[in-house]
């Protein structure tokens, strides 16, 4: 029975996919995004009339830097049948999200562009160029990359006196080497203790270990005050009684959740914390 249902769904979706399909060489005109990071690149690079729908979280101001702009576009929840109602000629998705939807769309021949998680500035720039090429908006993508490169050239990464820092997230997770966040911490003139201790990307860091490391700067997200059990560790009394003074800074998750020009706003927030910590030394 499940097999028959899947066959029926694929057949129905295939009919929708074939209908009104544009010429292969044409710039895509019915683009659907089911990924928050893709949403923001599309709104910056595509013509508005190229966008048919954005992801459900595109209007969430706590997660998207373009929440207000996203209100101009219909939203979707990433279901294959919902996506196909827009008769897309291209769908943008994340590498690790909505796998069932992505697999179904690929099986019926929909052009799906999957975005990976960038781990470096070159990764971010490559992703911007890739999206621009897919949209037929190469010039806009190149202009965005050039703007980022110009901004990067103004960053002073040679600070000889780098305060130490640790990112601490709900459930006691930290961010180490091999992540874009680690790169941004370095650009801000801070030394990521998690990376120095050999931790990779997202790793657990027990509270006792955090206390022992006693960083100059503790970086938390703006979800710190959200009512959730996972956030309770961020309010542990020990964080206010560390062995030595510690600067606590909140970086809105929307600033470094996705690769794009907004990551430099996160660097600015971190640099201010680095300056305060440096003044204490």
Descriptive tags:
single chain, 281 residues, alpha/beta, Rossmann fold, 2 domains, four-stranded parallel β-sheet, 12 helices, 42% helix, elongated, signal, ABC_transptr_periplasmic_BD, Iron complex transport system substrate-binding protein, ABC_Transporter_SBP
Can you describe what's shown?
- This protein has 281 residues and is α/β, with parallel strands linked by helices.
- The chain has two domains: 2-151, Rossmann fold (3-Layer(aba) Sandwich), CATH 3.40.50.1980; 164-280, Rossmann fold (3-Layer(aba) Sandwich), CATH 3.40.50.
- Helix content is 42%, strand content 15%.
- It is built from twelve helices and eleven strands.
- The protein has helices at 2-18, 36-45, 67-70, 80-84, 99-107, 121-135, 138-153, 180-187, 193-196, 207-213, 253-256, 263-280; strands at residues 31-33, 51-55, 75-76, 90-94, 112-115, 164-167, 173-175, 191-192, 202-204, 217-221, 247-251.
- The strands form three sheets. It has a five-stranded parallel β-sheet with strand order 3-2-1-4-5, with helices on both faces. The protein has a four-stranded parallel β-sheet with strand order 8-6-10-11.
- The longest helix has 18 residues, at 263-280.
- It is elongated and about 60 Å long.
